[in-house]
Input
Amino acid sequence: MGRFVNPDNSAFQVALNSEIYVDKTGLLSYTNKVLDTIQGYICNSRPRRFGKSFAANMLAAYYSKGCDSRKMFSGLAISQTADFEKHLNQYDVIHLDIQWFLSNVSDPEQIVAYITECTLAELRTIYADQLPPEVSTVPDALSRIKEATGQKFVIIIDEWDVLIRDEASNQKIQDDYINFLRGMFKGTEPTKYIQLAFLTGILPIKKLKTQSALNNFHQYSMLNPGPLASYIGFTEDEVSALCQKYGQNFEEVRRWYDGYLLGNYHVYNPNAVTSLLLDGTFQSYWSETSTYDSMVPFINMDFDGLKTAILEMLSGAAVPVMVTSFKNDMVSFVNKDDVLTLLIHLGYLAYNQQTQMAYIPNEEIRREFLTAVTSNHWNELFAFQQESADLLDATLDMDENAVAAGIEKVHEEYTSVIQYHNENSLSCVLTIAYLSTMQYYFKPIRELPTGRGFSDFVFLPKPEYRYDFPALVVELKWNKNAKTALDQIKRQHYPASIASYTGDILLVGVNYDKKTKVHECRIEKYLKSGEKD
Output
């Protein structure tokens, strides 16, 4: 066994030793299926602490000839498949962690040479007869070994994109590295010696002009997870089972840490969930691994509509984003959509593939955004904070005229950035108008199934404010009247959606008259069974 060629299984054993381990060996079922096929070139990108290295270590432990992992995988999902033993520890594996190599060179421009030197040295200990001194590149070595022995390789590269991220301004380093990868994987010759190629990192493969630098790879990401969706982070079923085991309220965990929608799966950040279950404290664990400082240069970029989009998402809204122009690097930004797409890959935003909308996924990330914009003194934020706080006070005081006037003011001020005469714009206005609620309330729930229909908005106070602030059930109407909105809330039994909520509930009906541009509001306290007005 070696460090990089045919490694042992000790790295994956660390994961198995951990108190919380979630079985993701179903990924191996998929990679077994695509071995030695054109689908066997995979780039699986995901944010920090979403299990990238865990997946790479698992693949190495399963395929590497340098260890015996039968006992390790016994009892896990992969051991129940028909081809489990057929592929177990049967391949020459090259496992490279680019972050490790970068940290062990004094000059980043030497990283390709260092990777080559280390890998060739270990290959020569196994295949000395096939690698004469003149062999100086890894692709040439792998080609010669395959020609002489028939042996194909499984190549796993962890943190594949670290040079794209950390050396973003050094074009020579990036060119050398991309050329190294293309030599390894592009063309006819690599198909002869590669059994499986698995790259994992934060970014998808960098684009050259309009195509990927390695366009033979199938890219699965936070934008398009494909068949790997359930192996990126923890699924809702997995989190629910962990909450039951550790005695945590699943609904509370969902409000704090859910929000990533990958295919048909609601996905949670594994680091956040395990930290909560072990520490027992609801808070943002994101900043422990990727502080808000890393997002600040991007959200402060001078692109039209960027700050408005951030404010709308902070308020709970989703915004449209075109993800196709992003070049998969940290420097080639041409518009706000490129910035938002990067934030999706970094995990600061979530993405709905069907609606092509971006949004802040959960309370944890919303706090990171709020810290970022507050610490950078966004005038756009401070301009609304006081007005929004006044609007919330007026709502809690059931001052209908003041609420209507406050919403109308926000609507007028946003005519330059949203369509005024659009029913969806009223929803955007409402979320922005109630921006101050984020201090006391969870992200507003849109279109919540309630009783016999769907309420437009439900604001639920955080547990620590439950006795000080009522829940808000809000219904919006367009060219009707506020009483109609309020009647619909009561007729459709919308408060039934939060029956488990034991605090006070206010019913808020809002109408916008397109012709007069006048907003109207009606507010009532919801009377539960047995209560009197």
